[in-house]
Amino acid sequence: MKYYIKTFGCQMNFNDSERLKGILQSMGYEPAESWEHADIILINTCTIREKPDQKVYSHLGEYKKIKEKNPGAIIGVCGCLAQRMGEELVQKAPVIDIMFSSFNMHHLPELIQQAQAGYKAIAILENPPEDEDKLWEYATVRDNQFCAYVTVMKGCDKNCTYCVVPKTRGRQRSRSLESILSEVKSLVLDGVREIHLLGQNVTAWGQDLGIPFEELLYRVAEIPGVERIRFTTGHPKDLTEGIAKAMGEIPQVCEHIHLPVQAGSTRILKLMDRGYTKEEYLQKIDMLRHYIKGITFSTDIIVGFPTETEEDFEDTLDILEKVKFEQVFSFKYSPRPDTPAYSMEGQIPDEIKSQRMSRLLELQKRILSEIAKSYEGTEQEVLIESYEDGKLTGRTRTNRWATLKGDSSLLGKLVKVKVLNSKPFNMECEVLRVIG
Ligand code: 5AD
Ligand code: SF4
Asked: What string of pLDDT tens digits covers the 436 residues of the chain?
C-alpha cells in the first residue's frame, strides 16, 4: 500500500506532513512515486489567504481521477482549510473520504479503517482532543537528513485581526520540555545537526508551562550533537531581552531571526492588533543587534490592509530601509471570513495593493543586491545539506544559500567557506576548511 501527500502552506504544515508520513509508515504504507500510484492521497491544506484555498480545489479535481484506476483509493483532506470549512468542504467536493485537521492527526489510523469499511470519515473537532500528545509518539519522515524541524507548540493565542490561524489551529499549547528534548535526542542519533524549533508563535513557548522560551534554547543546546539551532516564527511582542541574551550566548543559535513586522505604520499595526508600535519594533531590532553580533533578519509584510493610506505604506517602506531585511515575504491583504478585518471599512482595491506590492518588491530588490554584495570576500560557516553533480549546497548561519564545488564526502559537514560571488538568492563559495 502506498501513500502520497501534497502539502500547502507554512513550515508547520510541512512538519505536520512529515509526522503524517511517520504515522502512515508505522501502518505499513510506503511512499508512492506520484499520486497516480497511491492507495491513499492526503492533501494537507492551508487557508491563510484566498489563493491557497483555490489550489486545493484544483488538486482535488485532478486527484479524483485516481478512483477510475483504483476504486479502493482513499482521498483525504487535512490541515487548516479542512478545520475552517468542515462539512461544507465535503459538500463542495464529495470525492473526499477522510477529513481531519492538525488537532487529530494521530487519529489517522482509525479514520483510514473507517474509510476502508466504506464510511466517510469526517472528523473535524471543535477543540483539540485530550489525547493530542499521542501525536509525538510517531517519528517524522524527513527528506533533509541534516536539518530537522521540531514542532514545539501548537496554536496561537494572539488575535491578529487579519489571521485565521487562531481558528484553524486553536489556542496555544506548548509541548512539554521532556517531549521536545527526547525528539531532539533521537534526531541527533539519526544524523541531524541543525534543529529548527517550530511554532506559530514560538517565542511564546512555555508561557502556559511557566518556563521562558530561552530555557528551551539552553536545554536544546546542551544535547551533544546539536550544532545549530534556529526557530520560527517569533512574535516581536514576546521577544524578550532574555531571549536575545540567550541567542547571543548560545554558540549554536544561528545569527538570524524571522520576525514578522506586517506593517510599518503604527496606526495600521494597531488595527491589526499586533501589540507594538513601529518604534517598538525597531527597538527590538536594535536589542537583537546589541546581543547578537552580525544577526540578520527576515520578515513578513502585508500590503493593503484595510484603510492603509499612501503615508502608512511609506512607513512600511521606511522599515525596510531601516532594518535591511535579507528576506521579505510580502502578501497582498486577503480578507478571511470570520476575522475582524474582513468586515472593516476601507478595504483597499486590488489595483492599489498590486501597485504597492511592486514598489515594495522594487525597493527590496535594491536593498538585497546591496546586502548580497557585502558578503563578497567574507568567510562564512556553511552546513552542507545536499549534493548533486559535483555541486554542494548549504546555508550560512545567517540563512543565505551557498553553493560550492566539492564531493559528496562533505555532505552533512560544517565547512568554513570564502564567498567568491554573491547574488541576491545564492552565493558561490570555495571551501577553506572543514570544521566538523
Ligand atoms: N492576508 C494576507 N496575508 C496574510 N498573512 C496572514 N494572514 C493574511 C491575510 N489575511 C501573512 C502574514 C503572516 C504570513 C504567514 O501570512 O504576513 O505572517
Ligand atoms: Fe496556512 Fe496558517 Fe495553517 Fe500554516 S497555520 S497552513 S500558514 S493557515
From this structure: 999 999 999 999 999 999 999 999 999 999 999 999 999 999 999 999 988 788 898 999 999 999 999 999 999 999 999 999 999 999 999 999 999 999 999 999 999 999 999 999 999 999 999 999 999 999 999 999 999 999 999 999 999 999 999 899 999 999 999 999 999 999 999 999 999 999 999 999 999 999 999 999 999 999 999 999 999 999 999 999 999 999 999 999 999 999 999 999 999 999 999 999 999 999 999 999 999 999 999 999 999 999 999 999 999 999 999 999 999 999 999 999 999 999 999 999 999 999 999 999 999 999 999 999 999 999 999 999 999 999 999 999 999 999 999 999 999 999 999 999 999 999 999 999 999 9
Does the C-beta of 333 come closer than 6 Å to ligand 1?
Answer: yes
Q: Which three cell numbers stand for residue 127?
A: 477543540
Rounded to the nearest 5°, which phi and psi values hold at 23? -65, -45
Question: Which atom from ligand 1 is nearest to the alpha carbon of 329?
Answer: 17
Q: Helix or strand or coil: residue 391?
A: strand
What is the CA(37)–ligand 1 centre distance, in A? 35
- Residue 273, classed as helix, strand or coil, is coil
- Closest ligand to C-alpha of residue 46 is 2
Cell of 382: 556553511
Instruction: Give the residues surrounding ligand 2 with Cβ less than 6 Å away.
Output: 9-10, 12-13, 46-48, 79-80, 164-165, 168-169
> Would you list the DSSP string of 84-119?
HHTHHHHHH-TT--EE--TTSGGGHHHHHHHHHTT-
Q: Which ligand is nearest to the CA of 200?
A: 2
- Left if phi > 0, otherwise alpha if psi is -120 to 50, otherwise beta: which for 350? alpha
The contacts of residue 358 (CB under 8 Å, 6+ apart) are none
Q: Whose CA is nearest to atom 18 of ligand 1?
A: 300
Q: Is the CB of 49 under 6 A from ligand 1?
A: yes
Nearest atom within ligand 2 for CA of residue 47: 8
Q: Tell me, in angstroms, the distance from the centre of ligand 2 to residue 353's CA.
A: 22
Ligand 1: which atom is nearest the Cα of residue 162? 10
Instruction: Name the DSSP letter for residue 385.
Output: E
The strand pair at 379-388 and 391-396 is best described as antiparallel
Cis peptide before 45 (omega within 30 of 0): no
Backbone angles phi, psi at 378, to 5 degrees: -85, 165
191 SS3 class: coil
